[in-house]
Every structure is written in structure tokens, then in C-alpha cells.
Write a structure and sequence with these properties.
- The chain is about 60% helix and about 0% strand.
- By secondary structure, it is an all-alpha fold.
Length: about 100
């Protein structure tokens, strides 16, 4: 079975690296772009689209993170439940808020 490899950041298209600030990002933050880097035009389009979604959002980052975690809890995705995005923590997310998701009212 053919598998796609994760492209190391130093092999990414220079414009894609600059657009995503990939050198300073963690592997988690690089996400699917590590695979999408095989097709730089598509990766740049995806990154641009994703950035526009974040720039024009109306919900606070901590609420988005709480929703993501609630879905992860519902689906019992242990990997997703274990992750906390720093931008949400910076926006006021606390472990108390996360623990309250077990029995939301």
C-alpha cells in the first residue's frame, strides 16, 4: 500500500514556509501541511483559506477550543482530548473549564 511521507520543513516550498511560518511551528501546528507540502500550490491555498477563517472569526478562541474538546470527548479521541492549543490557553482557557465539559448543562 502506498503511503505519503511527511515532508521535512526544510524541503517545503520557500513561499509555503514563509506563509505558514513553518520553521517556528511545532509538528502539531504544521499539521496536515507536512503531507500537503507534496503539492505546494494546494498547500498554499489551504493555508491561505485556513488563515482567513481564523482572522474573520467571531467566537473567542477558548470557546472554539472547548467545542473541539467536547467533540473529542464525545468521540472518545484520546489524542484530541490530550491536546490544548496555546492560543486558547492565552485566551483564558483553564483546566477547570475543560473538566466542566464532562457534564455540560
Amino acid at each position: 500500500m502506498t503511503r505519503l511521507t511527511k515532508v521535512p520543513v526544510e524541503q517545503w516550498d520557500a513561499e509555503l514556509r514563509a506563509l505558514t511560518q513553518a520553521e517556528g511551528a511545532t509538528p502539531l501546528e504544521q499539521g496536515l501541511l507536512r503531507i500537503m507540502a507534496h503539492a505546494p500550490r494546494m498547500a498554499k491555498a489551504l493555508a491561505t483559506f485556513g488563515a482567513s477563517l481564523w482572522q474573520d472569526r467571531t467566537l473567542p478562541r477558548r470557546l472554539i477550543e472547548l467545542i473541539r474538546l467536547r467533540v473529542a470527548f464525545h468521540n472518545q479521541c484520546r489524542s484530541c482530548m490530550a491536546i490544548r492549543y496555546q492560543s486558547a490557553v492565552d485566551d483564558g482557557l483553564t483546566e477547570g473549564m475543560v473538566c466542566s465539559l464532562e457534564k455540560p448543562h
